[in-house]
Structures are given as structure tokens and as C-alpha cells.
Specification:
Blueprint: H1 5-15, H2 20-27, E1 35-39, H3 47-52, E2 56-61, H4 64-76, E3 83-85, E4 97-102, H5 113-126, E5 127-135, E6 150-158, E7 164-172
Parallel strand pairs: 1-2, 1-4, 2-3, 4-5
Antiparallel strand pairs: 6-7
Amino acid sequence: MMYDTLCTEFYDIDKKFAPSDEVLFYKQFMNKNDLSLEAMCGSGRLLIPLIQEGYIVHGVDNSVSMLNSCKERGSKLDLGLTLFEADIEIMDLPNQYSLILIPLGSFQLLYPRLTAFNVLKNFKKHLKLGGKIILDLFVPWDAMCENNQEEFTEREVLTPDSGKIIIKSHNITNKKE
């Protein structure tokens, strides 16, 4: 999944920065002297607060728009960020990491299943011996309904220039695939 300019704007307004309890959760698995990687880092929602706390975290994402937003947000806070534009399934980064993480259920956006498997294999290649992978996952209970049941959702945010961005979703559950 690739976020372009409009999706990035919606995401930045809707998500801002990770709340302190989420940052605290990830910090318990990190050491300030170790190098970590946030895959699918987007615009720095978690990455930036971790760096502000003194952790060494690189970011990787395949969305130029999200990475540009991350750079801009980091620059406003006088943070030096190390970011990579790459597809996490085939990335070949110059470092190995003590921790690789994907927060907020983003790993579940990977499709098909083989893609997710290839990402995990690639993560292993980028992990130091004894390194950890943390994937924030959730059970989509609403999708556990009858097969072919439809769900419609709508979310909106107000932009700084008094505009409005609306995202409408239409999902059909197919539990057999």
C-alpha cells in the first residue's frame, strides 16, 4: 500500500504523533545505544517521539509523500532523521538492527500472504543476532461476520485551511481467501 499526498495529509491530521503510552510500550524493548528500525514508518508518528526520547531509530517506507512529511516534521523539531525509501519486501539497507518494529497494525496491510512472509524473511536478514521483531497486530473482529457481508465506513478530518478530507470505505468479507 502506498500513501500519496492526500492520504498523507489525512494521516498526519488524524494520527499526529504516538501517545506517550504507546511510546512507553516500545521503549521497554529498546536500548538507547542500539540501532532500531521502524518499518512502514510513514510520517514519523512513532519514529519522531522515539528519537526525541534519545533512541537511535531509522525509518523505512515506500511512500515518498509520507517520507517527505516525516522529514518536514523532523526538521521543525531540529531532529536529524535517517530515512530510507524502499519496499520492505525487497529492501537492502546498509545496517543490521537490534529491533525492527511495525506499529499500529500496518503489517496487516501486506497482501497477499506471501508478501508478508517475504517481508519477515527480509527482516531476518536485517536483524543482528539476538535481535527482535515487534509487530503490532489486531484481530479484525468486525470481519469475523458472515461471508460476503458488506461494511461501509466514513471518516473525515478538517484541514488547517478549513477544508475537509473524507475517506469512505466499502469492505466485503471473504473468509475463504
